[in-house]
TrEMBL record:
<feature type="domain" description="EAL">
    <location>
        <begin position="24"/>
        <end position="276"/>
    </location>
</feature>
<protein>
    <recommendedName>
        <fullName>PAS domain S-box-containing protein/diguanylate cyclase (GGDEF)-like protein</fullName>
    </recommendedName>
</protein>
């Protein structure tokens, strides 16, 4: 079959493959210099109290302004950044910039109660990570409670000792800890109550199936129940319609985030929407 396609097909295939490798190498090269060239930018998505509709805070979401490809979402570069070892440095930038932004909004008269920042394991394993966070908070005169750090369920299950010690240290400091994409991993119920966490974020794949998939509805109910039992705030990710809000509120979920309330937007747009 391959032979019958003939020589031109083979050449086409070959060129295409080479193009893929070159494109990948270019991306790696561009990614290495992106921080220095100030090509990263943070977008912010509102987190809402489902009962009152109040703004609880925002989550900082990273974007890369690639010189030729435009604004790239994290799915296009996070894994690669981690692979080439620059995600720790990028993560530091995210933390610093997110805190600076929270302080800047406050200076403009907009009181955003909380800033959620996503972490990677590489960061959580950095030496003196707790002190690093403490210094950033001090630099921008933020109370530790104004910062919520998001770790994924998968990260917690890796049982990395230093990372776990750092989580305990951050919690002791008063920084909030959220478990992102909850429900997609394999947390053992025996361990979860001993982890230093404050919030469970129900993964949006379950939220999206409310009203369509009773198994996923059961998962959502179980997570809300688990949160209640452990005294944790439960936030549903990826809320896109009112029916989902009704279901979640009825089940006792306190907080939500999703396109229904607002897509991730620039800092200026947050100020325009919530400031006065
Ligand atoms: P995440 O932390 O679970 O962030 C939520 C993602 O869901 C965001 O995608 C957001 O745009 C998207 N989303 C929110 N509401 C809705 C909705 O109603 N419908 C749908 N379909 N999607 C919704 P985004 O910004 O592309 O980020 C993807 C992931 O990349 C994040 O998932 C997070 O794991 C990672 N990420 C983003 N920024 C950072 C960062 O600064 N550091 C690290 N380590 N990871 C980050
Ligand atoms: Mg997150
Ligand atoms: Mg998530
Ligand atoms: Mg499903």
């Amino acid at each position: 079959e391959a032979k019958s396609r003939g020589r031109n097909d083979f050449q086409f295939f070959h060129a295409d493959m080479a193009g893929g490798v070159v494109a990948q190498l270019e991306l790696v090269h561009a990614l290495r210099g992106a921080l220095r060239r100030h090509e990263f930018v943070l977008y912010f998505q509102p987190q809402i109290d489902l009962g009152s509709g109040r703004l609880l805070g925002v989550e900082a979401l990273l974007r890369w302004h690639h010189s030729r490809q435009g604004l790239l979402p994290p799915a296009r570069f996070i894994a690669l950044a981690e692979e080439i070892g620059v995600l720790g440095e990028v993560g530091d930038w995210v933390l610093e910039t997110a805190c600076a932004q929270l302080a800047a909004w406050r200076n403009s008269g907009l009181e955003v109660p909380r800033m959620a920042v996503n972490l990677v394991l590489q960061q959580l394993e950095q030496e003196h990570f707790v002190e690093r966070v403490e210094r950033v908070l001090q630099r921008y005169q933020l109370s530790p409670g104004a910062l919520q750090l998001e770790v994924t369920e998968a990260m917690l299950m890796r049982q990395a000792e230093r990372a776990l010690a750092h989580l305990h240290g951050l919690r002791a400091l008063g920084v909030g800890i959220a478990v992102d994409d909850f429900g997609t991993g394999y947390s053992s119920l025996g361990r979860i109550h001993r982890l230093p966490i404050d919030q469970l974020k129900i993964d949006r794949s379950f939220v999206g199936d409310i009203g369509h998939d009773s198994a996923d509805e059961t998962t959502v109910r179980s997570i809300i129940g688990l949160g209640k039992t452990l005294g944790l705030e439960v936030l549903a990710e990826g809320i896109e319609c009112d029916d989902q809000v009704l279901f979640l509120a009825r089940e006792g979920c306190q907080a939500g985030q999703g396109f229904l309330y607002g897509r991730p937007v620039s800092a200026r747009e947050i100020l325009e929407t919530y400031g006065r």
